[in-house]
Design a protein that fits this description.
Elements: E1 39-40, E2 46-59, E3 70-75, E4 82-92, E5 95-104, E6 129-136, E7 139-147, H1 149-153, H2 169-174, E8 192-193, E9 197-208, E10 211-218, E11 231-239, E12 243-252, E13 259-272, E14 275-287, E15 293-309, E16 312-323, E17 326-343, E18 346-357, E19 378-389
Length: 390
């Protein structure tokens, strides 16, 4: 994503981050594409993988001046469009080495998606991942630009698995952008990209019994203390008869080391036959570098997946997102969708959203990739597309 101070931001590879739209994942995150779907390069332990996603988007009202309807070609409605390279090699004595390089692009125009971090300059090549590490029976350690463990913890409990359109992927991202992506001298952290990707980071991951967890620290690299410009994130998922998730992360200002972003989440998923019921709670607090609180957003999502056919999964989800400091920055959202799998690597999707936006609604309470469709209005959106993985 390219986050500017305009009106458009996406977690997909989007190039403009505006005051009316930004950054999911969700995302089966590209890093989760199975190795069986990757292409062998001919080099030992090296694979090429990716996702290509595009479709049609209609919205009944637009916030672009006239307030009329709008139709567009939409990149990454189900999952982000990406191209990646990964490798794994046996180092002996139970030790393996690995690397990940992952680029983010927009299918509708072929451009690289921009970044949402203050240090980003235009369309960064490996916006999503550029890292290497070691793994063994003791877990893994990853060094470099990478996914944070907090968002990954909630993929199974977020009502729409942080899909790239119509999910709380955007409430997550928008609430971790403005407080850290300013220019020099303003509220700023150069290691945080919308609370999902972290630069200059070290992460430890492991699975102990039914619990998978990660701990990440992004090194600040600034004079005057280890806290300046740093970030840390924790995330854990318990997978048993039910699935539980929890996360917490903080992003600190590069000048004052104050926590400009504090973000926490809890989630649950309960399977019942062909149904899976989900509930997810997120809270994001944004401060200035001097410590003044500017927003305190609760994001509540509930939903159910219904596997009504071997190739079809329908989802109904409801999101209620509100800034407790500004009661009119509030959106209520109802989403219906169906994913049809031609085969495991090819999905045709249809997803619809009804958005009721408050009179002062902002991107911080939005579930739409392009931000609030129309402030103070009720809008209908329809997204139909095709998703390939390889």
């Amino acid at each position: 994503m390219t986050f500017t101070k305009s009106k458009t931001c996406r977690i997909r590879v989007h190039a403009n981050f505006s005051k009316k739209n930004t950054v999911a994942a969700a995302v089966l995150m590209l890093s989760m594409v199975p190795a069986s779907q990757a292409l062998e390069t001919g080099l030992p332990g090296v694979e090429i993988f990716g996702i290509i996603d595009a479709g049609f988007l209609y919205q009944s009202k637009s916030d672009q001046g006239g307030g009329g309807s709008k139709t567009s070609m939409e990149t990454s409605g189900l999952r982000q469009s990406v191209l990646g390279f990964k490798g794994n090699r046996d180092l002996g004595k139970g030790l393996s080495g690995f690397f990940n390089l992952e680029a983010h692009f927009d299918t509708n125009n072929g451009n690289f998606h921009g970044t949402g971090d203050a240090a980003g300059t235009g369309n960064v090549l490996f916006r999503r991942q550029a890292n290497l590490g070691l793994s063994g029976d003791w877990g893994s350690v990853t060094l470099g630009r990478q996914y944070g463990p907090a968002l990954l913890a909630h993929i199974a409990t977020e009502p729409r698995a942080f899909k790239e359109q119509f999910s709380n992927l955007y409430a997550w991202a928008y609430n971790q952008y403005a407080a850290t992506a300013g220019g020099p001298g303003t509220d700023r952290n150069t290691n945080n990209d919308v609370g999902i990707f972290f630069s200059n980071a070290i992460q430890y991951r492991n699975t102990i019994g039914p619990v998978n967890f990660g701990v990440l620290w992004a090194l600040g690299g600034k004079e005057g203390g280890m806290e300046k410009n740093s970030a840390y994130a924790l995330g854990a998922t318990y997978t048993g008869p039910v699935t539980l998730s929890a996360s917490y992360q903080e992003v600190k200002d590069e000048a004052t080391a104050h926590s400009n972003v504090k973000h926490a989440g809890l989630g649950i998923a309960i399977p019942f036959g062909d149904f899976t019921f989900k509930g997810n709670y997120l809270n994001a607090k944004n401060d200035t570098k001097a410590g003044a609180n500017v927003s305190d957003v609760d994001g509540i999502g509930v939903g159910v997946d219904w596997k009504w056919h071997p190739r079809n999964t329908a989802t109904v989800a409801y999101y209620d997102n509100k800034d407790k400091r500004n009661s009119n920055d509030h959106t209520r959202n109802l989403v219906f969708s169906n994913d049809f799998s031609f085969r495991p690597d090819t999905t045709f999707y249809v997803q619809m959203a009804y958005v009721d936006a408050g009179s002062a609604a902002t991107i911080k309470t939005s579930i739409v990739a392009a931000g609030i469709p129309a402030v103070g209005e009720q809008s209908f959106l329809l997204n139909v597309g095709l998703n390939f993985t390889f």
